[in-house]
Design goal:
Helix content: 25-40%
Radius of gyration: 25 Å
Strand content: 25-35%
Number of strands: 29
Length: about 500
């Protein structure tokens, strides 16, 4: 769904969920601005028993001139009702009896009978979704400083101060928006109330601790997502806690924050594990978060509560994987088959063709950011068949690939981009990448794994590669300590089995 699909209505009401948070208010405010710019009669509302009272939200509404209204009823309204950061008919939003409804949300889908729906549960905030939809309409949010500051703060709050950013579109919005720095600082410093401090203290007292695996699970009373992060950071400083999960139960689900200081456990991976099939989770190696849908949780786990689920699920996670340290691991080739690398088509770009030599840059991909690269004539960026990026030298490119002066055509959810660290300019690489084909006779031993396996490679001893069952454990024939993981979805596109003659 595009925003322009909704322009058939002269009157529009945008509804935030009950007890709206910063993300919901910001999303609604941005939509309100866009529809008013299109000449539509538009209102921004919320319902429910409680009116906005948190100091940071009151400051946000006042300083950004957000005309949000608390209403009991809009029955009889014959225009379009848009629910943001929530879904019409779900448990966290009052259902008003109207005919025409649209949904814009970033949570797991719960309502399936509304045709006008845009839900992207992989995004960190609804603010990001609205921003991306506005970009698609050619609407420059930075021309509206109050809106850009609101969206920035919405993402900030819903991702625990940007520490739980998971998708490159979230990072693109954060880096693109021009927010009022002075107001942003005031908003950040008005998040905690005395009640929040009491919530944190009571939660820490009720910590459930697993001594064997050194993890803690902490339940809090209902609070803003950033308070979960605050409690997580406190608990994570305890000397015997390597991993902690802090959560609370809200109207439509379970919101949680994850911290990890263990090199063998990425917080983002654990966050995704906890939400598997019942929600969404992700973030960074040390800080992550997620959300579990009440509807899906109760359907799949009808006989346990949230605390029992999290404790058992984390314990299950610890026993679900094997670990390989490539520098110490002894490979047994007799258990593996021989494969030869195929002449696969990749993309390549010389970094100095994008930015002047010496320019620090961030390479953004669906898999994450490379934020320590500097453009030069000798640095090339290889783009794989899943949109992943690998920095290589000109010598390695010439040795291992045949290059062509032809466009590299790749369909992917997010095509890699480069951001100039000095100017902040973002450059999409889609129309700049050229085609190359791998050459040579690279041979490996490989086998599919039957359990999740984490490999610390010889070229990166700090961050592991994760193989899920069915993915391939591979080792180069000319170096038995060069062990790595190949995704099962691309293995047959890259390698062919070598048959004995």
């Amino acid at each position: 769904m595009k925003l322009s699909d909704l322009l058939n209505y002269d009157s529009v009401i945008i509804q935030c969920h009950n007890n709206p948070d910063a993300d919901s208010i910001a999303s609604g405010f941005a939509l309100l601005t866009w529809f008013r710019e299109k000449g539509k009669n538009t209102r921004l509302i919320y319902s429910g028993k409680a009116q906005i009272s948190k100091p940071n939200l009151l400051l946000m509404v006042q300083e950004l001139n957000i005309p949000i209204e608390h209403v009991e009823s809009i029955n009889g309204f014959d225009g379009l009702l848009i629910t943001v950061d929530s879904q019409y008919g779900a448990g966290n939003i009052k259902r008003h009896d109207v005919k025409n409804v649209a949904i814009i949300d970033h949570h797991q889908q719960e309502i399936f009978d509304v045709p006008l729906t845009e839900i992207r549960s992989f995004l960190g905030s609804c603010s990001t979704l609205v921003w991306d939809m506005l970009v698609e309409e050619g609407f420059d949010v930075n021309n509206y400083p109050e809106v850009s500051t609101a969206l920035w703060y919405g993402l900030f709050c819903d991702t625990n101060g940007f520490s739980e950013l998971n998708h490159p579109i979230d990072r693109d919005m954060r880096d693109t928006l021009v927010a009022d720095k002075s107001l942003a600082r005031r908003l950040r410093n008005s998040n905690l109330t005395l009640l929040d401090l009491e919530t944190a203290g009571m939660a820490l007292i009720r910590t459930s601790y697993n001594r064997k695996n050194r993890f803690a699970v902490i339940k809090t009373n209902p609070c803003d997502p950033n308070i979960l992060g605050y409690i997580s950071d406190l608990a994570h400083q305890v000397d015997v806690i390597d991993v902690c999960v802090v959560y609370n139960e809200i109207n439509n689900g379970i919101k949680y924050s994850v911290r990890s200081s263990s090199p063998e456990i990425m917080a983002s991976e654990l966050a995704a594990w906890l939400a598997n099939d019942i929600g969404s989770g992700g973030g960074h190696a040390e800080k992550a978060g997620g959300f579990i849908s009440n509807h899906r949780f109760e359907k799949k786990y009808p006989n346990i509560n949230a605390d029992e689920y999290l404790l058992s699920k984390i314990s299950e996670y610890y026993s679900s994987f094997d670990i390989i340290y490539a520098g110490k691991y002894e490979v047994d080739p007799s258990e593996m088959k021989s494969y030869r690398k195929l002449p696969v088509v990749y993309g390549y770009i010389r970094s100095s063709d994008i930015l002047p030599g010496g320019t620090p840059m961030i390479v953004r991909t669906l898999q994450g950011d490379y934020d320590d690269l500097v453009a030069s004539d000798n640095l090339y960026l290889m783009i794989g068949i899943k949109g992943e990026v690998s920095p290589i030298t000109s010598e390695m490119l010439e040795k291992n690939y045949t290059t062509f002066d032809e466009p590299y055509d790749l369909s992917t959810e997010y095509f890699p981009s480069i951001r100039n660290k000095i100017t902040g300019e973002s450059i999409n690489l889609k129309n700049m990448a050229k085609k190359c084909i791998s050459k040579g006779d690279v041979q490996i031993f490989a086998k599919p794994v039957t359990r999740a396996t984490k490999v610390f490679t010889i070229w990166d001893r700090d961050t592991y590669m994760l193989a899920k069952p069915g993915d391939y454990l591979a080792v180069r024939k000319d170096n038995h300590h060069d062990i790595y993981i190949i995704n099962k979805d691309v293995f047959s596109q890259i390698y062919e089995e070598m048959r004995e003659e």
